[in-house]
Amino acid sequence: MNDLLSQLRLVGDWLTSSKQWHGDEGIPHRLLEHLTYSGLSLLFAALIGLTFGLLVGHTGRGAFAVASVANLARAIPTFGLVVLVVTLAGLSTTPVLIALVALAVPPILINTFEGVRGVDPDTRDAARGVGMTGWEVLVRVEVPMALPLILLGLRVAAIQVVATATVAAYPGLGGLGRFIVDGLSRNDYELVIGGSTVVVVLALVVQIVFTALRRFIVSPGLRVSAAKP
Amino acid sequence: MIRFDAVSKNYPNGTTAVDDLSLELAEGGITVLVGPSGCGKTTTLRMINRMVEPTAGTVSLRGQDIREIHAPELRRGIGYVIQHAGLFPHRTILDNIATVPLLLGWSRKKARARAAELLELVGLPAEMAKRYPNQLSGGQQQRVGVARALGADPPVLLMDEPFSAVDPIVRAELQAEFIRLQKELHKTIVFVTHDIDEAIKLGDNIAVFRTGGKLAQFDTPERLLADPADEFVAGFVGQDRGIRRLSFVKAADVPLRDGPVLPATSPVAPARAVDEPWVLVVDDGRRPLGWAAVAELPESGTLADAPLAPLGHTFSLVGDSARAALDSALLSPSRLAVGVDAEGAVIGVADAYELSAVTAAADVAGAPAGDEVGAEGPAGGER
Amino acid sequence: MSDGEPLVRWQWIGDHAGELADYTAVHLRLGLLPVLFGLIISVPLGILCHRLRWLYPPVLTVANVLYSIPSLALFMIFVRYTGLTEQTVMIPLTLYTLSVLVPNVVDGLASVPEPVRLAATAMGFGTVRRVVQVELPIAVPVVIAGVRVAAVSSISLVAVGQLIGQGGLGYYITRGLQLDFPTPIVTAIVLIMLLALTTDALLVLAQRLLTPWSRSKVTAS
């Protein structure tokens, strides 16, 4: 207990020290870097993952390929991939971002696909039967019904990207991971634990954002489960 | 108005869902497609709104080959109801019903107003408008499904086993409601079911399909019961089709005789003189009170003092069918059915043997005219 | 990386075969023990959540929040208590598995058909006996689907532990960076993926053997 308190005090001291809030090595700058890496790669991953997920889910063609890609992708050690990219392409941001995108696409792809595939065949049949075109079925029925899973995929991808962007500090990238990696190499535990705290806070914010998104954009009709016939 | 010309549907794996079907469905009536599973009845239905395309032959709607109509456009003009309703879980009830009007480009306000009307038409309270499908019972969802199909007031409704996923009591309710709606709306309805009782109850015409997608018989329910085309149809229609035929004979056509009817104020003596084991005691409006056993009548006094056996039930000459009359006879302690008029006053009585004469008459005359009369007899409950 | 250096020098792999085998064993231990611990925690916790519905949402929230914390940060938080040891890697990995395993145990139990549950009760099974002998076996396919996801991601996450000196095959990843030599990195990535995919395949096989009655198609989510 005492230990926890002293750890908290350590974090408090580090966070409140004014040098953490200015310059290229300060928290705001590192946070901005981290958000830029994560945001950009999530954006591109979403564009790719959603497009193909919706396409494959709607047409039903390529389902096996999607499942295989997702399975294989889960097995890739993200740390290894990032380090490999830096070793091969040198220390620049773009190759690392491409790696981040590659890691974030599969969860978005598979969940979008499963969300659309999982739409009750009766509902899809009814949508066609009342005269919706293929596009209308997708936009008015399949996407809204797949939203819970689509959001889950985006959330998993976001968590993955934020975590991998942290690790990317090891081969030399910026972002919040810098505090941890630098602290480790300098044996500066205050720096390590302070940086970790900021990372944890960022992760919590991501979690909260997705919980809020779910609340606001998923139809209440998909959440209630009262009076099932 | 809906015409199948030599229509077949074959699948690449070699199965034949529908085999050389030619059929013309009349405007403004309910045609029921019935048969065992795998007989092609649903495929036939789905060819009407191009959810399934035939491999041969043509389907036409009001003389126009439906292949000439863009499929989504065709479907917006045809109501479509399926087994589990297939409501959109992410939309409110009101928005579900407004689906087709919105697809047709109506303003949101107008579409919702129309949806509210339909909600009332199918007998659901207005406060359900804001709910979501998951919050409704199966029967309520099915009503919403019907309302959604009626969205743009289409002249044609396709219904694929719409009532088979709900329990028997709710099903009977929905069927009664459906009959009432059809009296009001006069749609051309094609209705698929595997339940021959439902077919007979709802259909103006029935097409019986056999496995392999062949049409076995297309006829009115009365003809189907009276004269099945072959053994398959006879077997499918069932063992008790003789009794069910009585559903199509009006009770008014039943031969009645006066019988031993006496008012409660009458003294016992004339009743004891009757040459029958039972006397029907009525009140001063000739409404039946019960049966009195002649052997157990008291020595003196009026019939009001006599012990009365309950009536069982009576049948009405306005509205009931001969089937209700037969049932009334079978349940009566005297084995006599009591026929009453609209006010409930006794008109006459008949026993089961006398009642059976009506079907013989029907056989001579061919199919008796008219709709199925009233309710399915007492077991069917009030409607 | 110097020009002309191939992606993989096969010679290097041959020279280091014995050492690679040792690190592979360590990697497997670091990756799979957390799944075992996770299962030991998740099964009772899942049963509890299944019986006490109010408990499930908070448990799920905590598991999801833990899962969202990047591994590097979570390792660092535990360094203070367990030092640069294997525990420091395995404890966070164990916590990560909960976000997959607990929901799958709960879903698995929920997948037991009500008539089966009632029949078991009617035949005189006590609660504990019914859960162990009837409900858990029926839940196995869904639970194993969760174990597959947990095992695969756990095995691939171990490598990050190398930043505190406990990364199994992750050793070759940092080594390759230091030497500016891609062969060990590629080798480590391929070996880690092979471990993950082999484990996945073995789990599928295990499920078939454990539940011969269900050649079903339960998919991992």
TrEMBL record, chain A:
Location relative to the cell? Cell membrane; Membrane
- Transmembrane stretches, start-end: 35-56, 76-105, 149-171, 191-213
List the CDD domains hit by this protein, alphabetically.
Answer: TM_PBP2 (cd06261)
PANTHER family referenced in this protein's UniProt entry, alphabetically: GLYCINE BETAINE/L-PROLINE TRANSPORT SYSTEM PERMEASE PROTEIN PROW (PTHR30177), POSSIBLE OSMOPROTECTANT (GLYCINE BETAINE_CARNITINE_CHOLINE_L-PROLINE) TRANSPORT INTEGRAL MEMBRANE PROTEIN ABC TRANSPORTER PROZ (PTHR30177:SF33)
Matching InterPro entries: ABC_transp_perm/SBD (IPR051204), MetI-like (IPR000515), MetI-like_sf (IPR035906)
Main site of residence?
Answer: membrane
| Annotated signal peptide | none
- An example Pfam family from this entry, by short name, is BPD_transp_1
Segments forming domain ABC transmembrane type-1: 31-210
Name recorded for this polypeptide: ABC transporter permease
Species the sequence originates in:
Streptomyces himalayensis subsp. himalayensis
Kindly state a single biological-process term from the GO annotations of this entry: transmembrane transport
**Membrane-related topology note:** Multi-pass membrane protein
Keywords noted in UniProt: Membrane, Transmembrane, Transmembrane helix, Transport
Q: Which family does it belong to?
A: Belongs to the binding-protein-dependent transport system permease family.
Which Gene3D superfamilies does this one have? MetI-like (1.10.3720.10)
What do the Gene Ontology cellular component annotations say? plasma membrane
UniProtKB/TrEMBL annotation, chain B:
UniProt keyword terms in alphabetical order: ATP-binding, Nucleotide-binding, Transport
PROSITE patterns for the chain:
ABC_TRANSPORTER_1, ABC_TRANSPORTER_2
The EC number of this protein is 7.6.2.9
Fetch the SUPFAM superfamilies from UniProt: P-loop containing nucleoside triphosphate hydrolases
* Domain ABC transporter: start-end pairs: 2-237
Report the GO molecular function annotations.
ABC-type quaternary ammonium compound transporting activity; ATP binding; ATP hydrolysis activity
What InterPro entries does the record tag this protein with? AAA+_ATPase, ABC_transporter-like_ATP-bd, ABC_transporter-like_CS, P-loop_NTPase
As for family, the record states: Belongs to the ABC transporter superfamily.
Against PANTHER family, the record matches this protein to: OSMOPROTECTANT IMPORT ATP-BINDING PROTEIN OSMV
Q: What is this protein called?
A: ABC-type quaternary amine transporter
Q: What is the lineage of its organism?
A: Bacteria, Bacillati, Actinomycetota, Actinomycetes, Kitasatosporales
TrEMBL record, chain C:
- What transmembrane ranges does the database entry give? 30-49, 61-83, 89-110, 138-165, 185-206
Which residue numbers delimit the ABC transmembrane type-1 domain? 24-204
Q: Does the keyword Lipid biosynthesis apply?
A: no
| Xref: Gene3D superfamilies | MetI-like
Q: Which GO terms describe its biological process?
A: glycine betaine transport; transmembrane transport
Q: State a single Pfam family of this protein.
A: BPD_transp_1
The subcellular localization recorded is: Cell membrane; Membrane
Q: Give membrane topology per the record.
A: Multi-pass membrane protein
- GO CC field: plasma membrane
What keywords appear on the UniProt entry? Membrane, Transmembrane, Transmembrane helix, Transport
What family name appears in the similarity comment?
Answer: Belongs to the binding-protein-dependent transport system permease family.
What is the protein's given name?
ABC transporter permease
Native source species: Streptomyces himalayensis subsp. aureolus
What lineage does the source organism belong to? Bacteria, Bacillati, Actinomycetota, Actinomycetes, Kitasatosporales
